[in-house]
Specification:
With about 140 residues, this protein is an alpha+beta fold. The protein has a single domain, classed as Endonuclease, Chain A (3-Layer(aba) Sandwich), CATH 3.40.960. The protein has five helices and four strands. A four-stranded mixed β-sheet has the order 1-2-3-4. Strand 2 and strand 3 form a beta hairpin. Helix 1 packs across helix 4. The longest helix has 18 residues. It is globular.
Length: about 140
Amino acid sequence: MKTKDESYVLDLCDLVLTHESSRQHRFAFLLGDTGRRLPVDAYYSTLNLVIEFYERQHYEEVRFFDKPEKLTCSGVTRREQRKLYDQRRRDILPLHGIELIVLSVQQFRHDTRKRLIRNHIEDEKLIRRELAQYLAVSN
């Protein structure tokens, strides 16, 4: 069975950094509008690093994810809430000494539906370039 693109990319990050990330990690200081802890895709505690993988719903309207006819508890669409929460991560994590790196599906080869066309060697090279500043620290 093929894994989700997010898992594939984060598995490569774990490989490159030689650390296993905490997936869907939640910090007590990173809260949504209802007071619930917001997840991050991958957290590397020894590196003070969070990696987020942005799939197409972070860049374009995707009806399955956005459900524009429904509002969230904050009174905005899910698309708008996603933008707010993405920005909240960018604002709050550095205040706690945690760097945020965003990897995007747009950086990788992908098909017209924005699903990755996986090439382990090329994808690992891309991730090594993006995470270069952490390679000396992690090894």
